[in-house]
Amino acid sequence: MSQPKRILLLDTGNEWGGGTNSMFELLKRLDRNRFAVTCCFYKDYRKGKEGRLLSEELADIGIPLIVLPSIKQPLWAKLAKEIGRGLFSWSPRLKKQIVLGVEVQWRIKPRVVTLRHLLGENEYDLLYMNNQPASNLEGYLAGEMAGVPVVQHCRIEPTLHASLLAS
């Protein structure tokens, strides 16, 4: 029998919602002989205000969890975004591009490096992303750099604009 396909499931969300619920339904039904999933989150959040932690719920179904260290937004990034929003308040498109450009520098690029390393070091066969495309830019870039195929799970109409990919 062949080894199960190693899958890194990336979820960039900050709170328990419909995406987390659908992810659990998928993981509960997954054929463990064919697929070995490790979840990767940025935060070990609770199910509701007083509920159990994500890590506890995943442990109950035998799915490992990697929680990446949080990255605190530097002062320069906060100031650059606020100045950009003020200077380009007349153009929603330019304002959005400026903010994204700052986000790419301080948050997305470091996450790409971390994810690329994680994908290669653990020899994952697939990166499965569990949020909307616009919130998974680092996953797309890391998958491409690591040579790992990417699957995007969308529960609603997805939107990924070309300007995001040019970053």
Descriptive notes:
The chain is α/β, with parallel strands linked by helices and 167 residues long. It has a single domain (5-72, 115-165), classed as 3-Layer(aba) Sandwich (Rossmann fold). It has 6 helices and 5 strands. The chain has helices at 18-29, 54-60, 75-87, 92-121, 137-146, 162-165, and strands at 5-11, 35-41, 65-67, 126-129, 150-152. The protein has a 5-stranded parallel sheet. Helix 5 (137-146) links the parallel strand 4 (126-129) and strand 5 (150-152). It is globular, with a radius of gyration of 17 Å. 19% of the residues are buried.
Mean pLDDT, as a whole number? 89
CATH topology: Rossmann fold
Q: Tally the structural domains.
A: 1
In N-to-C order, the SSE pattern is: EHEHEHHEHEH
Gross morphology is globular
CATH classification, class level: Alpha Beta
**Spatial strand arrangement across the major sheet:** 3-2-1-4-5
The CATH architecture can be given as: 3-Layer(aba) Sandwich
- Summarize the amount of helix as a percent range: 40-55%
Number of helices: 6
Radius of gyration (Å): 17 Å
Low-pLDDT stretches: none
Beta-strand portion reads 5-15%
Q: Class by helix and strand content?
A: alpha/beta
- Give a quick account of the main beta sheet: strands, pairing sense, barrel closure: 5 strands, parallel
Spatial separation of the terminal alpha carbons:
42 Å
CATH superfamily membership: Glycogen Phosphorylase B
Number of strands: 5
